[in-house]
Fold this protein.
Amino acid sequence: MLGKLRAPFEDSQIGKLPRVTCKACSDRACSEHKPSQCRVCKGFLGKHIHLDYVGHAHVTERLLEIDPGWSWEPFALVERGLPALDASNGLWIRMTVGGKTVIGYGDAPGKRAAVKELIGDAIRNAAMRLGVALDLWKKEPADTVARAEPAPAEKRSLSPEERAAELRNLILAVGKKKRMRLADIAGAFHEWCRGEREFRTAPAEVLEEFQQHLQKIGSTDA
Ligand SMILES: [Zn+2]
Ligand SMILES: [Zn+2]
C-alpha cells in the first residue's frame, strides 16, 4: 500500500504554488521588484518561486484508489459539534487509510473562514505522512517568506462571480474584527478606489486587493 501511495503523479496533476521570497514584496512595499503578471502562476506577486504541488482533489483520488474506505476526522469539536480550530485558525485531523492512522494539520494563512481550504490542506498534509506526493514536498525550500495565493488549479473551480462573492465574505469577516459594518466597509471601499467602483459589484481582482489593504490597516491598528 505504501508503494502505491507514493507513486509519482502525472505532470498534468502537478500544480505550481507561488511562494514570495522577498519580505518587502510580501508586505507589498517593495521598491526593488515590480509585480507584473507571472506567466507560470498568473499571479501579481513580485519576487517569487514556484513549488510543485498536488491539489487536494488529486490526493483524494489517490486515497480512494488505494482504500475506498479511507476517512478523516477532526481532533476536537466545538460545543455545536463542528470541528474546532486552533489558535492559528488551523485544523488538526486524524486520517485513516488502509487501517493506518496518521495526524495532519491544515491552515490557510491570510484567509479567514476558508474551511474547505483548511480541510483540503489538512488532507494533503496527512497524506504526505503516508508518502503521497512526498517527493514534491521534499523540494520545498525553508526560506520562503509567506504562502501566496493558491495556484490557479485550485481556484479554477470557482467562477469569477463565486470568487467575488467569496472575497466579499472574507472582507466582511475582516471588517467585523475591526467592528466595521457592511455600510462602513462599502464606504471605505468607495473611498479606497476613489469612487471608481462599488463594493457590491466590483470584480474579484479589485476585491482581492482591497482585502489585503483592509487587513493591513487592521494589523497596523492592532
Ligand atoms: Zn521585493
Ligand atoms: Zn509565478
